[in-house]
Every structure is written in structure tokens, then in C-alpha cells.
């Protein structure tokens, strides 16, 4: 990869992060009863749909984030391994629910990412409009 490619990915990730931070600010300013990251996600989706932000402006950065997403789950697993000897039956049920929830989130994220990379996102009423 060239230096320009790296700088392009950094710029795109910065744009995604900036929109997320704007969503957090809007949530705080307007006292919206949702998490700021969700408001940022809705804002980002709206900007993409209205073509204010073009997919080509964030595609490489988003692909990088999707490719490295698995590394963000590693610290929580290591944290659990540190306290494994102190866990009783109540915590076992709790952790089972956490694992099931994490698997569902990972599965859903994988399906959405696959659909996005195949270019079948945002299609309307049977039309195969690609990004």
C-alpha cells in the first residue's frame, strides 16, 4: 500500500469518527433518549442515503474497520479470563447470556457486512441497485 492509500484510509476513518462524534454531541444537546453512537449511526445512514456523503468517500476506511472489528472483542475475553476463579453459578448464567448476545451481534454484523460488500444494500423493491 502506498502512503497516499494509508492517508486516504486515515481520512475516511476520521470522517466516520467525526460523524459519530457529531451524533454524540446532538444527543447531548437535544437530550435524545438514545445512545450518542446510535444517533451518529442514524445520521451517517441519512447522509449516505441523501448522498451528502458518498460511499466512495468512506469505503476503504469502513472496509478496514470491518476487517479489524474482531480485535475489539479480544480485551473483554482477556478480562474474563483474569477473574475466572472468582466466578460462581450466578455469574456463569450471566456470562452465558453475554456470550449468546455477543454471538448474535457478531452474526448480525457479519451478515450486514457481507451484504454491504456484495453491493446489495439500500436496494428498493427488487431493483438491484449497487453502491
UniProtKB/TrEMBL annotation:
It is a multi-pass membrane protein. It comes from Staphylococcus americanisciuri. This is CidA/LrgA family protein. It is found in: Cell membrane. Keywords: Cell membrane, Cytolysis, Membrane, Transmembrane, Transmembrane helix. The lineage of its organism: Bacteria, Bacillati, Bacillota, Bacilli, Bacillales. Coiled coil: none annotated. The chain crosses the membrane at residues 7-26, 32-50, 62-85, 91-113. Pfam families: LrgA.
Amino acid at each position: 500500500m502506498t502512503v497516499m492509500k494509508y492517508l486516504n484510509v486515515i481520512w475516511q476513518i476520521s470522517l466516520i469518527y467525526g460523524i459519530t462524534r457529531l451524533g454524540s454531541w446532538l444527543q447531548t444537546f437535544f437530550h435524545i433518549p438514545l445512545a450518542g453512537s446510535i444517533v451518529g449511526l442514524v445520521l451517517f445512514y441519512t447522509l449516505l442515503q441523501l448522498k451528502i456523503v458518498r460511499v466512495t468517500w468512506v469505503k476503504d476506511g469502513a472496509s478496514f474497520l470491518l476487517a479489524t472489528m474482531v480485535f475489539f472483542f479480544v480485551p473483554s475475553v482477556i478480562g474474563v479470563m483474569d477473574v475466572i476463579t472468582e466466578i460462581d453459578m450466578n455469574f456463569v448464567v450471566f456470562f452465558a447470556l453475554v456470550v449468546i448476545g455477543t454471538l448474535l451481534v457478531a452474526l448480525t454484523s457479519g451478515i450486514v457486512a457481507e451484504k454491504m460488500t456484495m453491493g446489495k444494500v439500500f436496494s428498493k423493491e427488487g431493483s438491484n441497485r449497487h453502491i
